[in-house]
Amino acid sequence: MGKLKIGGIELGSRLFIGTGKYPSKDTLPKVIESSGTQMVTIALRRVDATRNENNILSYIPKDTILLPNTSGARNADEAVRIARLARAMGCGDWVKIEVISDNKYLLPDNEETLKATDILANEGFKVLPYMNPDLMSAKKLVDAGAVGVMPLGAPIGTNRGLRMKELIGIIIEEIKLPVIVDAGIGAPSHAAEAMEMGADAVLVNTAIATSDDPVKMAKAFSLAVKAGRYACTARLGAKSEVASASSPLTGFLHEEGF
Amino acid sequence: MSFYEVVSGYKDFDFNGFLSSVNSERVRVILSNDKISDMDFLALLSPAAQGHLEHMAEKARRLSLNHFGKAVLLYAPIYISNYCINRCAYCGFNHDNSISRKRLTMEEIEQEAIELSKTGIRHVLLLTGESKKHSPADYIIEASRVLRRHFDSVTIEVSPLTLEEYVHAAKSGIDGVTVYQEAYDEEVYDEVHLSGPKKDYRFRLDTPERACRANMRSVNVGALLGLSDWRREAFMTGMHANYLQDKYPSTEISVSFPRIRPHAGVFEKVSGVSDIQLVQTILAMRLFMPHVSQNISTRETATFRDNLIPLGINKFSAGSCTEVGGYSGAQATEAQFEISDGRSVGDVCEAILARGYQPLFKNWMSI
After folding, report:
1. pTM for this structure?
2. Residue list, annotated binding site of A
3. Which of A72, B9, B205, B355 makes the best surface tag, with the fewest CB within 10 Å?
4. Catalytic residue at A96?
5. A112, A99 in Cβ contact below 8 A?
């Protein structure tokens, strides 16, 4: 399938997993194993380092790359402080910038995200910004030092799929860094669709965490991501407005001697 | 503009006429839509909507799962003073009630914090009676600094503060404010608040907005169900939450549904709210405002609370003590009200897990 190169590392899996919304922390290791993921995002605000049995970090296998997110940040300043706290707590250099100042639709604030990306990339963080799919913003984030961009497919938790498909397609076409579709992916078919379009990876949380069988659903997403990636690299056939018969009606015109 | 103008706009509205005009077909149509308008919300509180409770529950469950997942945040109250200068007909802290009064010192607050934190609780709600003399803003802020040494989040439910006081509190690390209007019906409000500064309906009504303006991270509103007609009170609570969320999108607005409980003193005119009616309120609120956190306290019984988890409740108080100094047990006072769910934090956790949900101890930290 080919490895994903991002932030100077290679990943065998193109499925990133979120850790919120699960019925119990015990489910997490099984989901991570079943999904085959190598990168897991955690909300730092939910990390409780004071009690081992309650610390979400102790449920994540050691060989998994932690992608702490700045969930809860309302502006760049708060996101930067959360990222620094994450690094100080030993969560590594990766950070997913999440700046949301709208609690009604939970849409990211691209302007504040850009400010935070600029600051944190300069401090040596490997920054993945979660963003509204806007090409100009994506370019600015890349210029600011992001190692990839994470446009949303649909608002967080809606499971509505790739509602922003056209705009994500433009970003995939124009941005030379990895594009990870985040939020809104509610079914394995949505993930496959994103991968077929040429996304480098997808991040899934709600659809797996709130399903009746998160372990089985994680497997389903893993397979869908692989299928979508294979389809992308094999190149999908061209779309046509009219039917194209395998045995053309005018084929006889090319026959010898006619 | 203040929310008072919204309330005033409904002063002459014929609630009874509207509610009785809602039929089953209208409810069915509302439930088939994604967007719920103000009037749709009111219709979902109607007697006709009660026949669609299961359909409402299914939809509310799905929305709650999408937005909050299978997680229930736990918190506990910590009462640090019960001196109060108000005479509220429904409250155990009523100035006229002959209960033992106490205000904790910072050392005593620290002891309470140490005992409470042993249960695993990381989010705490600091409460006082309303007395500027015994629990002024400076005392509350100093107490919150003590609590922050032991908890990740400190929110307050104290007498309404001024904007400047809330700004100071937010900068000092207090990250949320709970303030119940008690009764949105202005006449009932006047009737049950016999005397004291709380009698100022408008000042209390504008309190959540002052907290939002002060950049508090979270603001929690609600009505004390039982003081007045529950349908109107639930509707105005939703209007209030919606008004605040629209105007202050970066503040996390949440709602509570306290039902009046036995307490020291007697309030005769309780307007009852049945379990079915409370469930209808919770479901209608979830459908109207899918992103808003919903909170249920230990006022309700253990069984009832557990059954509310899949319906959209995502914040639970646990192991609560409503007495001043109650956790460390030193010279405890009378409680503000009687709690119904007296389970330990551990028992509450087990019950949440048994429902297929995860008890969440930490959802924020001071940054």
Report:
1. 0.90
2. 157, 183-184, 205-206
3. B9
4. yes
5. yes
